[in-house]
Each structure stands twice: as C-alpha cells, then as structure tokens.
Amino acid sequence: MFGDWGWVDRRNAMQSRRLNAWLNKVERLLVIEIGAGANIPTVRMTSESVCRRLIRINPTEPELGSAEGVSIACGGLEALRGIAAAMGDCLPGTA
Predict the structure, then answer these.
(1) Which pTM does this prediction carry?
(2) Per-position DSSP letters for the chain, written without gaps between them
(3) How many domains does the chain have?
(4) What pLDDT tens digit does each residue of the chain (95 aa) get?
(5) Is 85 a domain residue?
(6) How far apart are CA 20 and CA 86, in angstroms?
C-alpha cells in the first residue's frame, strides 16, 4: 500500500471476512454516512454498495448517486439531532 512492500494482508483479510459474514446475516441494513464528501470515494462507494437504504449527511455534497435513501444537506450534529427528535416522536414512551 503506497510503496509499503512489507504490507501483511492477514489482518486486513480477516477483517474483510468478518465484515462480509456479518453483512450476509443482516436483512435490512441502514447506513448513516456522516461527512464523507467526494474526496473520500471509498467511504461513499462502500456505503452505497453494502446497504439497502442510505442516509447521507454532508453540508456540501449530500447527493446519493445511485443509492436509495435520503440526503441531508447540513452538518452531522444538526442532522443527528433532527433524526433523534423525529424518532422520539415515533417511539412509544418517549417525550
């Protein structure tokens, strides 16, 4: 990786297998992606490829591309507070 010829793939391969095993067990995965702009394409591509629904929170680049979900054009904390408030309205026993 980046000229590191001593890279040992064993740990990375194990983590990848564990992630894939977990993803195969999950029936309805929702990813909440916060702050990953176009300059971080690996995060955005991973989010789009592993989930059925995506909530992408980014103040300047919230576009979903080909993913199905919701884009929120604001900062992460503001969006999470809004989601929590909306969820509180839907959940029994919360006020």
Answers:
(1) 0.77
(2) -TT-TT---HHHHHHHHHHHHHHHH-SS-EEEEES--TT-HHHHHHHHHH-SEEEEE-SS----TT--EEEE-S-HHHHHHHHHHHHHHHSTT--
(3) 1
(4) 567 778 888 989 999 999 999 999 998 899 999 999 888 899 999 999 998 899 999 999 999 888 889 999 999 999 999 988 888 867 666 55
(5) yes
(6) 31
